[in-house]
Design brief:
The complex is a heterodimer. By secondary structure, chain A is α/β, with parallel strands linked by helices. Chain A has a domain of 172 residues: P-loop containing nucleotide triphosphate hydrolases (Rossmann fold). Chain A contains nine helices and twelve strands. In chain A, helix 6 links the parallel strand 9 and strand 10. In chain A, helix 5 runs parallel beside helix 6. Chain B is mainly alpha-helical. Chain B is 69% helix and 2% strand. Chain B is built from 16 helices and four strands. In chain B, strands 1-4 form a two-stranded antiparallel ribbon. In chain B, strands 2-3 form a two-stranded antiparallel ribbon. In chain B, helix 2 packs parallel to helix 15 and helix 3 packs across helix 11. Classes of the chains: A alpha/beta, B mainly alpha. At the A-B interface, strand 8 and helix 6 of A face helix 11, helix 12 and helix 16 of B. Chain B: It holds the Pfam family BPD_transp_2. Chain B: Its main location: membrane. Chain B: It is found in: Cell membrane. Chain B: GO terms for molecular function: transmembrane transporter activity.
Chain lengths: 262, 373
């Protein structure tokens, strides 16, 4: 990928120990603006620990994080958020009983001054919400539609649209497609594609190779807390990725017995 | 992955809803229906009893206003995801403190009132702080406050005066500048004029001969209306209102989005305590005395009014206007049964039944909103 550019984020030889447990034993990943970097790994590979380190929740035990060319030390997640690193978690920071527009601006409410008083600017919030959701290809019944009535994929999209609207440069998506049906997944993947085209760097965590192949520019495979390798799109076949994820041989044996259905 | 071109095409998976059904999905639905029902009922059964002449209207308005004052606090707190069971005890406690400060200790009334407010709001803050810090359900924490405050309200006057009712507050409030804010009346001139032009009845005998039977709007009603308006605007039109909904809807998600959930909850506990103290102050100045049993069961009545008003017991959803309607229903029914000559114990039966209906209706509305099965 564009090697002449500085990566948005560069994580070098990140190690993270929890007491005697070594969760990460040297993970290196970099991310450029406008690319979708897929982070693949089986359960327990260290994906979650790694993204939590990237988003400021954990401090690495060893290793270096460079953000826009400068070494970075996040004290807490809010630091990371204000620097432009947004995480869309598996459970979503969305409140089902509240309207989409109230959710969209939760914690960042737009204000309108009336004399000395400041009020929630509902007109602005409603307009922006409808507009941003339309850009992502979701037609709401109205900005006051409750989030609870949206499907899982649509909720992911609201969360992504919200992060993008509030100026994310790096968007970390933690298994956004893991609980979704086929069509919902397609919608979320198309959202990722749109976000990438706006020049935002997307870290897409998944253990589904097909989802990764659909939108990824580069693929990094984690296994047992280490980077197994990074490959560009077109340099690697889905089967190889699958093998790397599961640590090769064992899965190959299993797969043949299952008739290639995994 | 291709772009989805259909921008203005409606989604075929969303069933279109009729405008009527849409209009039904508001938290105030139960309150509105209940209000219409209750007024229709009493207009038919009690219209000859004087319930709807000036004195009668004032009578149930005052009772409704009392319910409204505590319902506003309980409503915002419930939407923020917490309960306060100590409201009733706090009413008794606040009134008793005002009486002790002003009558026993001889402080000027305004200082007594302000100190009582400070004490109660601080107790509210403590309630909230304990809930937030320990993560214990507010149900338990405020149940403790219910007993502690009630115990103190009985213990203090007994130790100081050897009785459980302290009188003489009206005399102590004489000439005070703050007391009329709670115990006074407004628009007395207007009502005088209403009496003169015969719009409302006047006394025909006695010392008040020629005076209108209703000589003004009690400050209690003004407080109720101001608090309802304040609560409604705060909840629906401000950033803080959004935080109240968010804190009650899902505290964890709200925190993830940068909402100061703990602060919101503690402030709502303080506001509930403030409302209880307003209630208590109006009451002691009107009665001229403070009793150790004042405010008994008020916490539950406040919660029932809020639930009739459409708020969910689980938090995150509700309406101050709905709670005000719930309070109005309460006041009208409680006094209406009296006017209609019905045994007043039936009021409790009515409460229980209407509460059950309200909760069922709210659950149904919640399912429509969130699409749960």
């Amino acid at each position: 990928m564009e090697s002449h550019l500085t990566p948005l984020i560069q994580m070098k030889d990140i190690e993270k120990h929890f007491g005697s447990v070594i969760a990460l034993a040297g993970v290196s990943v970099d991310l450029f603006a406008g690319e979708c970097h897929c982070l693949l790994g089986d359960n327990g590979a260290g994906k979650s620990t790694f993204i939590k380190t990237m988003s400021g929740v954990y401090k690495p035990t060893k290793g270096e994080i460079m953000f826009e060319g400068r070494p970075m030390n996040f004290a807490d997640p809010r630091d990371a958020i204000s620097a432009g690193i947004a995480t869309v978690h598996q459970h979503l920071a969305m409140i089902p009983l509240m309207s989409v527009s109230r959710n969209f601006f939760m914690g960042n409410e737009p204000l309108r001054k009336v004399g000395p008083m400041k009020f929630f600017d509902h007109d602005f919030a409603n307009r922006v919400t409808m507009e941003e959701m339309r850009k992502m290809g979701i037609n709401l019944r109205g900005p006051d539609q409750a989030v609870g009535t949206l499907s899982g994929g649509e909720r992911q999209t609201v969360a992504i649209a919200r992060a993008v609207y509030f100026g994310a440069k790096v968007l970390i998506l933690d298994e956004p497609t893991s609980a979704l049906g086929v069509r919902q997944t397609a919608n979320v993947l198309s959202t990722i594609d749109k976000v990438r085209k706006q020049g935002i760097g997307v870290v897409f965590i998944t253990h589904n190779v097909r989802h990764a192949m659909a939108v990824g520019d580069r693929f990094t495979v984690l296994n047992r807390g280490k980077t197994v390798g990074t490959a560009k799109r077109g340099d690697i076949a889905p089967e190889e990725l699958q093998d790397l994820m599961a640590g090769g041989q064992e899965l190959a044996a299993l797969e043949s017995s299952l008739g290639g259905t995994v | 992955m291709t772009e989805t071109p259909a921008l203005h095409q409606s989604d075929e998976r969303i069933k279109s809803r009729s405008r009527f059904r849409e209009a039904l999905i508001v938290p105030e639905l139960g309150g509105i229906c209940g209000t219409i029902l209750v007024f229709t009922f009493f207009l038919l059964t009690a219209h000859e009893s004087g319930m709807f002449n000036a004195a009668g209207v004032l009578n149930w308005s005052v009772v409704s206003a009392q319910f409204m004052i505590i319902a506003v606090g309980a409503c915002l707190l419930m939407i923020a995801g917490e309960f306060d069971l100590s409201v009733g005890s706090m009413i008794g406690f606040a009134g008793m403190m005002i009486a002790i400060f002003s009558v026993n200790m001889g402080w000027p009334m305004w200082i007594a009132i302000l100190v009582a407010f400070a004490l109660c709001v601080a107790t509210g803050a403590l309630n909230g702080w304990i809930c937030v810090k320990t993560g214990l359900p507010s149900f338990i924490v405020t149940l403790a406050s219910l007993f502690i405050l009630r115990g103190l309200t009985i213990f203090l006057p007994q130790t100081l005066e050897n009785k459980t009712i302290i009188g003489g507050i009206r005399e102590a409030a004489e000439g005070d500048w703050l007391a009329p804010v709670f115990g006074g009346k407004v628009l007395t001139g207007l009502f005088q004029w209403f009496g003169e032009i015969g719009l409302i009845a006047t006394f025909e005998r006695g010392v008040n001969k020629g005076m209108p039977v209703v000589d003004g709007i009690p400050m209690l009603i003004v407080w109720a209306l101001v608090l309802v308006a304040f609560g409604h605007v705060l909840l629906t039109k401000t950033r803080f209102g959004n935080w109240i909904f968010a804190s009650g809807g899902d505290a964890e998600s709200a925190r993830n989005s940068g909402v100061p959930v703990n602060r919101v909850k503690i402030m709502m506990f303080m506001f509930t305590a403030f409302c209880a103290t307003v209630f208590a102050t109006c009451q002691v100045i009107e009665f001229g005395s403070a009793g150790a049993d004042r405010g008994l069961l008020k916490e539950f009545e406040a919660i029932i009014a809020v639930v009739i008003g459409g708020a969910l017991l689980t938090g995150g959803y509700g309406s101050v206007l709905g709670a005000a309607l719930g309070a109005l229903i309460f006041g009208v029914v409680q006094q209406g049964l009296f006017f209609a000559g019905v045994e007043s114990s039936l009021f409790r039966v009515f409460l229980g039944i209407i509460l059950l209906f309200a909760v069922v209706l709210n659950t149904y509305i919640r399912r429509i909103i969130t699409g749960e099965k």
